[in-house]
Amino acid sequence: MPLREIIEVAKDAGIGKEYLYPIGRYVAKVSLSLLDDLPRKHGKIVLVTTINPTPAGEGKTTTAIGLAQTLWSMGYKAIVGLREPSIGPFMGMKGGATGGGMACVEPSHEINAHFTGDMYAVSTSHNLLAAMIDNVLHHRKPLNIDPRRILWHRVLDINDRALRNIVIGLGGRSHGVPREDGFDITAASEVMAVLCLSKNYADLKDKLAKMLVAYTYDSEPVFASDLHVVGAMAFLLRNALMPNLVQTSIGSPAFVHGGPFANIAHGTSSIISTLMGARLSEIFVVEAGFGSDLGAEKFFNIVCRAGGFAPSAAILVVTARALKYHGGNGSKNGIRAIERGASNMLKHLENLQVHGVPALVVINKFKGDSEAEISQIKKICESLDVPYAVSEVYSKGVKGGFEMAESLLAVLDKKSRFRPLYPKTLPIKEKIERICTVIYGAKKVVYTLKAEEDLEMAKAVGMEKAPICMAKTPYSLTDDPTIRGRPKNFKITVREVRISSGAGFLVPITGHIMTMPGMPRSPAAEKIDIDDSGNPIIPQ
User: Fold this and answer.
1) Helix or strand or coil: residue 279?
2) Which of 101, 102, 232, 235 is the most buried (most CB within 10 A)?
C-alpha cells in the first residue's frame, strides 16, 4: 500500500502536529515536550526476544512489526519500538533491520541508510571527545593524561577490521602525539548507550559528563567533564535525542530510535521512545537484540530500571532453522534435530520465567519449513505447557499474524510478576556470576588478571552498584559461538571489564567479542546498487 503522510500517522497515534519536526513526507522527529504533556499512565509493554539465533537471524524484528500492525488492524492502539539499523551490518552480513516481506517499517531504504542522521550525530559527538583528548596531549594542558591509558577510541558506522588497532599522531610535532588507538563501531559507543538511556536534555548532559575517558600518570580518573566538551557534545546530539516516528507496512505508527548492539551494549531502542510509545498506546511492542541471554536480560535489568517501567509479557521467537541449528544441523532428520535443539528453547523460557514475565512462544514460519517440523515444535510446546502460536507475517502480513495476536492477548490476561535478576547493591562479581550461572547456565566464572584489575578500578570510581552489561557471543549460551544447544558444566571467562560510567553500567568482556566487526567474504555491499533514476536496488 502507498505510504501515508507522517502527519496523518502521527494524528492516529495521538501526536499533534505541534510536536512534529517532519523530515520529508514520511519521517518526523517528535519533540520531547510531548512526554511532559502525556498522561503518566501507559499501556502494556511486550518484549520480543528469541533463542540463540543462527547468524542469519530468526525474524525477531519482522515478528515485532507484524504483531503491532496486526493488533492495530484488530482495533487496538498498538505501536512498535525498534532500534535504528547500523550501516555496518547493513553493508556487511546481516543486511537491513527494518523487517521483511509484508511486515516492515517504512520508508525502509531510508531507515537502513542515513535516516535522520542520528548515527552521524553519535559518531561526531563521540569523535569530538576523542579529538579533544588528543588536543590536550598536543598542547600539554594540565590534565596530566597518560597517553598509554586513554580508554576512549574513535568510532565509525562501517565494519572495518583494519581500524581495530591503529597508530595516530605520526608526522612530527605539529601533527599530535604518537600513540596507539583504534576504532569501534558507532553502535558500540558509550555515547549511543547514553543517548538511549537518557530521559531529557539535562539527563543527557549529566550522563555525558560522567563518562570515563582516561587515567592520569598518577592513576587518577579523567572524565568527559574534565575536557569541558560536554556542552558541545550535547549540542551535536540535541536532535538525535528526539525519537523518530515512521510507519509499518499498513501505515500504523512505529518508533525507530537509537541503535546499541546487544552483544556489546544493552541492545534496546531509547527509553524516551519507549516511554512515549507506551503512553500513547494500549500495547507497546519493543524488540531487544538477540536472545533472552543478551537483549532481554539487559532490557529487564538495565533498561527497565533506568526507565522505571516493567514488561507485561514477552514473546520468544523460535524457528525450525534455529532449533535444527542447536540440535545438530548436519542431521538429515530435521525432526530429530528439532527435538534435540528444543533444549535451547527451554533454557530461554526459563530465563523469562526467572524474571516473572509471562511468555508466548511464536513459531516464525519460513518458506521451506515442512508441516512436520512445525507440528513437532507445537508438540514440544504442548509438552512444556507453554502457550504458542504460528506467525506468517512475512509472507501474509496481518492475515498471518492473527493467531499470534490473539494468543498474546490471552497471555496479557495473566499478571506479570516482573522482578530483576539481582539487586544493584550486590557485589560486582556476584552480579556477574548470577547472570552467568542463572541465565547462561554456567558452572563457574573465571577472571583474567586484567579483569581483576579492572574490577578494582571500577570500585575506585564508585561503580559498585552499577548494573552489568555482559559482552558475549549471541550464538551460544557459552562464550564460545561454536557450542550450541544447552551445554552443561562450562565456564565463562571474563577477559576484561570496561567502565561505562556515563551509561551507568559495567561491561564484562567474554570470549572474542569485537567492538569493531569485520566484513564477511561476500559483503551485502557487493549487491546493493541504484538504477539510473536513483532508486535503490537492494536484494532481499
Assistant:
1) helix
2) 102
End-to-end CA distance of the chain: 19
Name the DSSP class of 419.
Answer: -
Cα distance between residue 150 and residue 159, in whole Å = 23
Residue 308: partners with Cβ closer than 8 Å, 6 or more residues away:
none
Whose CA is closest to 439, among 267, 296, 260, 326?
296
Residue 330 in this model has a pLDDT that exceeds 80: no
User: What dotted CATH number matches 428-510?
Assistant: 3.10.410.10
Could you read off the pLDDT of 40-89 as tens digits, one per residue? 889 999 999 999 999 889 999 999 999 999 999 999 999 999 999 998 88
What is the predicted pLDDT for the residue at 331?
A: 52
Cis status of the peptide bond prior to 107, with omega within 30 of 0: yes
What mean pLDDT comes out for the span 500-525? 92
Phi/psi at 456 (5° precision): -65, -40
Task: Identify whether the C-beta of residue 309 lies closer than 8 Å to the C-beta of residue 356.
Answer: no
Give the pLDDT confidence of 481-508 residue by residue, as tens digits.
999 999 999 999 999 999 999 999 999 9
Residues β-bridged to residue 245? 28, 255
Whether the CB-CB separation of 411 and 359 falls below 8 Å is answered with yes
Burial of 265 (0-12, 13-18, 19+ CB in 10 A): buried
Which letter does DSSP use for residue 437 in this model? I
- The percent of residues in the chain predicted with pLDDT above 90, rounded, is 88
Read off the pLDDT of residues 112-163 as tens digits, 9 standing for 90 and up. Answer: 999 999 999 999 999 999 999 999 999 988 899 999 999 999 999 999 999 9
* Contact criterion met (CB below 8 Å) for 130 and 154: yes
With 0.90 as the threshold, say if the pTM is over it: yes
Q: Looking at this protein, which amino acid is placed at residue 449?
A: L
Which cell numbers in the block locate residue 131? 579529538
- Give whole-number Cα distances, 172 to 150, 169, 177, in Å: 21, 8, 8
pLDDT at 93 over 80: no
Domain spans in the chain, listed from the N-terminal domain onward? 6-116+240-412, 118-234, 428-510
Q: How far apart (Å, rounded) are the C-alpha atoms in residues 53 and 66?
A: 19
Separation between Cα atoms, residue 457 and residue 116, nearest integer Å: 38
Cα 151 to chain centroid, rounded: 23
Q: Quick one: angle between helices 190-197 and 230-237, nearest 10?
A: 70
Beta strands 388-391; 359-364: pairing state: parallel
Question: Which stretches within 74-107 are classed as H helix?
Answer: 87-91
Q: Which CATH number fits domain 6-116+240-412: 6.10.140.1580, 3.40.50.2020, 3.40.50.620, 3.40.50.300?
A: 3.40.50.300
Neighbours of 178 (CB within 10 A): 14
Q: Which three cell numbers stand for residue 202?
A: 539535562
**103-106 vs 244-248, strand pairing mode:** antiparallel
Specify the DSSP class assigned to residue 492: E
Sign of the CA dihedral with 135 first, then 141, 145, and 151 last: negative
Q: What are the E-state strand segments in 344-421? A: 359-364, 388-391
